[in-house]
Amino acid sequence: MHDLGARRHRTVQGLSEPRHRLRHVGRPGPAYLPEHASIGIHAGPLYGALAILAAVIGARETGEGCYLDVAQADAAAYFDWYRIESWRAYERPEDEVYGNKSDNYERRAPGTAGMKEGVRYQVYATADGGHVLFMASEQAFWKNFCEGVGRMDRFERWPGSKFADHARNNVELQGILTEIFKQKAADEWIEF
Prior knowledge:
The protein is mainly alpha-helical. The protein has a two-stranded antiparallel ribbon. A hairpin with a 5-residue loop joins strand 1 and strand 2. Helix 3 crosses helix 4. The N and C termini lie far apart (48 Å).
């Protein structure tokens, strides 16, 4: 049984859906826990281990122990801040909170949803059967990559926005990048 005190209850709500949707989601009956990021049970122990190590180091240096309070809900909120932020923002009207300019201001699902269609922020297969996560959503990184692989024509055709331009749904560019990444092994791309 997890402690769902007032503070933690708000955190759990934030991790999944807006507060007004947690209770009944348009149906009579008791509240239920909607789809959510079940990461507290994973993040809590990790932060607990870090806290223990910090406490041991502190005790060695000062000769004094300390009290540790490790909360799964707090750790989960820290891990999943992006989804929480999105749900919170999407409670506001669409004319106030909208998507990126590069996405034609379309709102994506909360968190990292909508990234499946991303092209310049995407996983690509390599020559050795491995994979690399390509993260060139910022124009400067995209330009640097195009220069590095000798394909400035791709930058000139699709320069993108300065920030957060994932080139969503650009199937032509995705095909080109797929072929480029198949030319080297994963380790070679990592060293690139």
